[in-house]
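Subject: Protein record for review, amino acid sequence with backbone structure tokens
Category: Structural biology, sequence-to-fold work with a learned token vocabulary.
Format: Residues in single-letter code; tokens as whole numbers, each standing for a residue.
Body of memo: The sequence and its backbone structure tokens, given next.
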Amino acid sequence: RRRRVEMADGTESEQAAVVGDGNPSQLSKSAKKKLLKQERQAARKAERKAGEKERRRADIERRRREWEESLAAAPSQEAREAMLAARRETRLERVGKRVEERGARAKRLRRAAEGGQKVVLDLEFADLMRPNEIHSLTQQIMYCYAVNGRSATPAHLWLTGCSGEMGTQVQRIPGFDKWIIEKEAKSYLEAFADCKENLVYLTADAETVLDDLDMSKIYIIGGLVDRNRWKGITQKKAVDQGIQSAKLPIGNYLKMSSSQVLTVNQVFEIMQKFVETKDWKTAFFHVIPPRKRGEAGAANDDDSPEGAANGDLDNGGSDSWIGYYLRGRAEGKSNLLCRRLKYDSSPSVSLLL
């Protein structure tokens, strides 16, 4: 018998149980501990969400009360009308700016679909990941799309293998149906069957080091959050499929102080930054957090990123609100904590739509 278990990330997973003759399900000791841990995590998450909801409600009420008090304190009816008019004008300007930014972003993404650098996120590893890892990968995909939308020179972004559990998860992303992105249920081998020779899988185990990005090539980033259980799997996949593989030249510029594994969104953002600047060092320093960097120029044979995002969710990148928010969500932090990480004048979550 299999039972449904709510995971800490809000998804459900099937938990196998050994069933006796007419007796209640009997789990092994380790399974019981795991189930108990999941239940505690789910309870803590529900408690956090309730607290965040209450804090948001209180904040809205406080701001409403402050506005009413300032309006009541106006010296005359004319002053109150002027305050109301100014507030309406500010709201209209804010809405107009969002609409304008969304239109400009859509125009850039459509132009990229015609001649941008092709980058594929390979989503065929869902069967190797746990539910919480699939959830983390979904957050990283959201961040990739956000980064691409903000870029002055966006990539022509593809999602391949977008089916099964992975397809179900990405379909749950708010506004996903409006994303200007290629969504393929089939593999990249089928999607690019007529130009297989141009496929290049990015993996730390490759012998070839990228010096530049070739517009004729189609670069593949492995969509895998595996907590280091599947080391070298992306290189093996490339070899088995007879396609090229390569690694970013991170070892030529940085000596990583901890894990050399980067997340999907980090690899993608490094590539985007290089397209903008044509400078690998600038791209690496822009994305990789200072605490993970050693001295520039200290080469190390192992200092290169894995194309797949093998579990190190220490995301770096742009100092924008959406960047900090999505990086925090990818790390499993609560909404409230993510909002507290960083505020600036960058566009909000609407850029995902």
